[in-house]
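Example for tutorial group B:
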């Protein structure tokens, strides 16, 4: 009954597989979902709006205005209403418009206004599917966070045999149900996430910092919130937008500020993921006004040790789950294991600086997860969003 009461926008574009959209719609409605159908003009050539409005119990939307009444259909309201948007079938043209923001019909404007998850089930002839243009558009959509329900191989409407058949409605429903159960899987859990660099001030205009972008930590916060967790995101200086969902963000500058924010929220949490690149040292004194350059000679600055947030939380973690990161250049696994032990972590995520696809300010990461029980899992290079999914899966797996 996971579909009960869920608001789903079903987008239908002009492909022969549109006849299967009626079955998909029927299954969703039977499962208890409220479904609003949005069609492209050519979608209506393949299946009639009358069939779909009868099955959904709602008038189908396909034009910006109803011709005789002048009533305006708000794609913005639809985008806000939807808990999920599924476009099945998604033609090459619709995928191309989505990837490039070409908002010339109601389906694309609704997609651009959708706040929640979007899935597409492509359907087209094998050569169209394999064409570099379609593949480029799918890669762009994937990078934008759209879930692609891969087409199947088999006989196509053209009688050619190859990859391009839309996935069957029953399987699309299974993917939709999996999405909603993922959304609720961490309901009631509270997780603290640290992200980004810390800046240690030298004077009002200078600091010691590092190149951490915060992308990994923000992706983790986003993934946790997508699964229904309440997230406290303690962020060092970075200009990333706060992920949607139940994420309360606390902006900090220095390691000491980050520690205070973490200490204030840790006890209330079930788990913490420490992905921030915390400066190990800070200037002993921060000058009140800008330090002037001497006429000649060098300058010396004494640095003092910063608190280790992971170790501090590790000492009082109780049965909370504590996850750290390790960015290593050599003896990677050995060093990571040592860190896990010293800081009392339950899990450590290792990324090697030797790897060109891992590390600071990249959109991809290549990780090995090491658990307290010694289990090691190495993953191929993936987007930071997918990496976040692997880390969260591993933390909360039964
Ligand atoms: O010892 P190292 O800095 O390599 O450890 C990395 C892990 O420890 C990361 O999870 C990082 O967020 C955390 N850390 C911390 N406080 C510090 C230094 C590192 O929480 N002062």
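The residue assignment follows.
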């Amino acid at each position: 009954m996971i579909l009960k009461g869920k608001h789903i926008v079903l987008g239908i574009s002009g492909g022969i597989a549109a006849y299967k959209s009626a079955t998909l719609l029927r299954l969703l409605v039977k499962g208890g979902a409220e479904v609003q159908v949005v069609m492209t003009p050519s979608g209506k050539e393949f299946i009639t709006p009358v069939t779909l409005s009868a099955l959904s119990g709602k008038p189908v939307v396909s034009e910006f205005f109803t011709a005789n009444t002048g009533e305006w259909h708000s794609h913005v309201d639809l985008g806000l209403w939807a808990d999920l948007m599924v476009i099945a079938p998604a033609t090459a043209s619709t995928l191309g418009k989505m990837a490039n923001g070409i908002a010339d019909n109601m389906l694309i404007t609704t997609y651009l206004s959708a706040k929640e998850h979007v899935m597409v089930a492509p359907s087209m002839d094998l050569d169209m599917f394999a064409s570099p243009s379609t593949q480029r558009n799918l890669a762009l959509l994937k990078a934008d966070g759209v879930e692609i329900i891969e087409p199947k191989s088999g006989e196509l409407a053209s009688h050619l045999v190859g990859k391009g058949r839309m996935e069957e409605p029953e399987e699309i429903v299974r993917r939709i149900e999996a999405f909603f159960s993922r959304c609720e899987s961490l309901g009631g859990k509270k997780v603290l996430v640290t992200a980004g660099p810390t800046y240690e001030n030298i004077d009002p205009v200078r600091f010691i910092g590092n190149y951490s972008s915060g992308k990994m930590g923000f992706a983790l916060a986003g993934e946790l919130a997508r699964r229904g967790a309440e997230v406290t995101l303690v962020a060092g200086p970075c200009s990333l937008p706060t992920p949607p969902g139940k994420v309360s963000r606390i902006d900090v500058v220095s390691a000491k500020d980050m520690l205070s924010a973490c200490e204030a929220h840790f006890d209330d949490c079930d788990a913490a993921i420490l992905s921030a690149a915390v400066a190990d040292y800070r200037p002993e004194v921060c000058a009140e006004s800008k330090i002037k350059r001497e006429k000649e000679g060098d300058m010396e600055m004494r640095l003092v040790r910063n608190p280790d947030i992971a170790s501090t939380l590790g000492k009082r973690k109780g049965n909370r789950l504590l996850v750290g990161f390790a960015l290593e250049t050599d003896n990677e696994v050995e060093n990571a294991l040592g860190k896990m032990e010293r800081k009392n972590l339950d899990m450590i995520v290792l990324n090697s600086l030797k790897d060109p696809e891992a590390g600071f300010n990249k959109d991809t990461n290549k990780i090995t997860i090491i658990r307290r029980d010694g289990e090691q899992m190495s993953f191929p290079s993936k987007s930071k969003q997918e990496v976040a999914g692997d880390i969260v899966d591993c933390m909360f797996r039964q």
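The chain is about 35% helix and 25% strand. Compare this with the pattern of hydrophobic and polar residues in the output above.
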